[in-house]
């Protein structure tokens, strides 16, 4: 029996997401989905906007993407969870197409939509760095024309049974940001559940617009990404050369320093900081 939209709770983790949260929540409500905004101590108008449209779980500090989603999952009471970024918008009938797929492919453990980016380009993730069980290279130019089993999904939007998510321990709480979706996909596959791409469930995604951009955020994002790469490489025994990463990005940082390029300095400085923290066993920057 196909579940109804009322059996789904959309969990949206926000952090200074005032510019995008409104359309995200409105599109979900229009399709009959309950929404729970888990806010990571935003300092803008995110909570003011969200309170008019969704249930709120306000965190006193920024817990990071994975931990905040875990809190939302624990608070939800529905059978299904839709993890969706605040800068993503479900298109008309997307939820119905998801639920049709749930009925058609009951053995699947994780479902993801067809994603279009702001410029209209079609985003498809053919594999993950954790898809080490795949033999040979997978071309990103080859995309499905219908529903298909895939090795990984983008964390921008994914549908999952709540009981399976909780049984797997949710998102890895040690990861503050980046690769938590890859890690979850890997654990779903390792438990023998297929991951399904649902072609007719369409979502638009304003990549990188979840939070207001600035130099501090740019540094932190790159630092978190570098740390998480180090962490999952160690967790899954992947090949990883932090010395090379530090050398290359350190040189780029020096060039940015002498050319007074603040944006590049933030990016490459963040990568160096995150890599160093990861290789020395320190906690993720935040």
Mean pLDDT figure: 93
Looking at how many chains there are and whether they match, the oligomeric state comes to: single chain
**Helical percent range?**
25-40%
Instruction: Report how far the terminal alpha carbons are from each other.
Output: 43 Å
Radius of gyration: 19 Å
List low-confidence stretches.
none
Q: How would a textbook summarize the main sheet?
A: 10 strands, mixed
The structural class is alpha/beta
Strand content: 15-25%
- Along the chain, the helix and strand elements come as EHEHEHEEHEEEEHHEHHH
Helix count, per DSSP? 9
Count of extended strands: 10
CA-based shape: globular
Characterise the protein shown here.
Helix 1 links the parallel strand 1 and strand 2. Strands 1, 2, 3, 4, 5, 6, 7, 8, 9 and 10 form a 10-stranded mixed beta sheet that branches. The protein is globular. By secondary structure, it is of the alpha/beta class. 47% of the residues are buried.
Q: How are the elements arranged and paired?
A:
Blueprint: E1 8-14, H1 21-30, E2 34-40, H2 46-51, E3 55-59, H3 65-75, E4 80-84, E5 88-90, H4 94-104, E6 110-117, E7 122-123, E8 148-149, E9 157-161, H5 162-167, H6 180-190, E10 195-205, H7 215-236, H8 242-258, H9 262-279
Parallel strand pairs: 1-2, 1-4, 2-3, 6-10
Antiparallel strand pairs: 4-9, 5-10, 6-7, 6-9, 8-10
Helix pairs in contact: 7-9, 8-9
